[in-house]
Amino acid sequence: MRKKTSKTAKPQNEHIFAASQLTPMAVRWKELNAAKRHKEAMEVLEEIVKGSTAMFERLAQYEDYHYTVDLPMLVSAAQEKVVKWLLRWQPRKGRLFSWFSKCAKNAFRSEVVKISQYRKRFHVTSDNLEKFYGADDHEVNKLDLAREVRARIDAMTCRWGDPQEIGAVRFLIESIIMDDHDKHAAVKSAACAWGISMEMSRFFYNWALVALRQQLYEKARVPFTEQDLVRAAHSYTFLPDLIDIIGVEQTRKLISLMGGTRFRLPTLASITKLKSDYALHQELVISDQDPDSFAGVARKRKRTLRTAEQIFTEMTETLDPRRSGEHDIYDEH
User: Fold this and answer.
1) What is the average pLDDT across 313-331?
2) Would the pTM of this model clear 0.85, i.e. be above it?
3) Which of 9, 22, 209, 210 lies deepest, with the highest CB count within 10 Å?
């Protein structure tokens, strides 16, 4: 007797991504989108996003990205980019599952970097931060961030008490925070509406811009500088400590001149021993140079005669004048 199979049963290896269903949907979406049947395409897209969500969740957990960024934020970051991924996907180049997996990993990495940069970080360089680079926050935490930003703006104060001036400043602040505001139009409108001069209105615009930057400084997203990148890339070495000790410019010079060269720094103990050996050598130099004199100096320094002779030989080589000074490389004679 033939065993009946369920029509709704999923094929093998499709526990978290129903490729047999989603792949035809993706092809269908591309066709609808090309035919500009956007309403139907949106309905298909919604089903593709829903069907891919389980895979996004499992992939984020498998790669351990959820330890750095909340899982819903990672999944949402991937879902937002599904349209772009579908536009670039071509069935002849590979399976939809493989394509989504590669794209999702890149989205997760980008989200980790993005969230890390939003967290409070110390700007270690002395670069001139004239421009702050804004960035759209993620949909998951955009509402909370907007509330915090709005609260900071509402708490702003100015040093002018005239109602007209306060009104102009408030109008300019609201104009600046609009996405599509026009500077010249805002300045002209403030001057006309609040009865102030154009020069005063331009000053108030610049003041409002500086005041907003100051109020939102901790939320500003500053791109990584060269020094930030070097510190991050070599955080598990002593290079960041070297930068703190000798400064950025001297470290840059050291890297330019000796980059790729390995050498061992002497310890304080080795320098102390070197000074002690030098003192012993000087006493041996001014002695009568005979074995008895060497033995007397060695006893005085609590060393054996053999050790004293060895130190004398090594220090004589170390103090060779040919090891220091400036010597012509190209001798004309």
Assistant:
1) 81
2) no
3) 22
Are 194 and 171 spatial neighbours (Cβ–Cβ below 8 Å)?
yes
Which H helix or E strand runs over 211?
A: helix 198-215
Structural contact between residues 52 and 82, judged by C-beta atoms closer than 8 angstroms = yes
Q: How many Å apart are CA 194 and CA 165, to the nearest integer? A: 7
Residue whose structure tokens are 């840059």: 252
Residue type present at position 285: V
As given in the structure block, the two tokens for residue 152 are 């900071």
pLDDT tens-digit map of 91-136: 887 889 889 988 988 888 887 776 665 544 444 444 444 444 444 4
Strands (E), 208-263: none
CA 42 vs CA 30, 38, 55, 265, 294: distances in Å: 11, 6, 20, 65, 97
Residue type, 257: L
Q: What is the pLDDT of residues 175-208, one digit of tens each?
A: 888 767 788 989 998 888 888 999 999 999 999 9
Helix/strand/coil for 133: strand
Q: What whole-number distance in Å separates Cα of residue 259 and Cα of residue 99?
A: 40
Task: Please name the helix (run of DSSP H) or strand (run of DSSP E) that holds residue 296, with its range, or none.
Answer: helix 291-300
Tell me the C-alpha to C-alpha distance, in Å, between residue 326 and each of 56, 264, 322, 323, 331: 66, 24, 9, 9, 12
The helices-and-strands tally (H runs, E runs) of the chain is 15, 0
Across 70-108, b (16+ Cβ under 10 Å) vs e yields beebbbbbbbeebeebbeebeeeeeebbebbeebbbebb
